[in-house]
Amino acid sequence: MPHIRVEWMSGRTAEQKLEFAKEVTEAFVRVCGGTATAVGIVFNDIEREDWITGAQIERLSK
Description:
The chain has helices at 14-32, 54-61; strands at residues 3-9, 40-46. By secondary structure, the protein is an alpha+beta fold.
């Protein structure tokens, strides 16, 4: 059973998560085979202040 983890900034609605999960599941089955019922998806919502990129650090260092 494949498990797909999605880490993204918080703020998406339940409907957006469901639509995303549907599209990712369909793509996985199309490309990798298997069945949709075997695919598991976990969403990790991260608060914006907890998400730092190297580009942000570089800008602050100047």
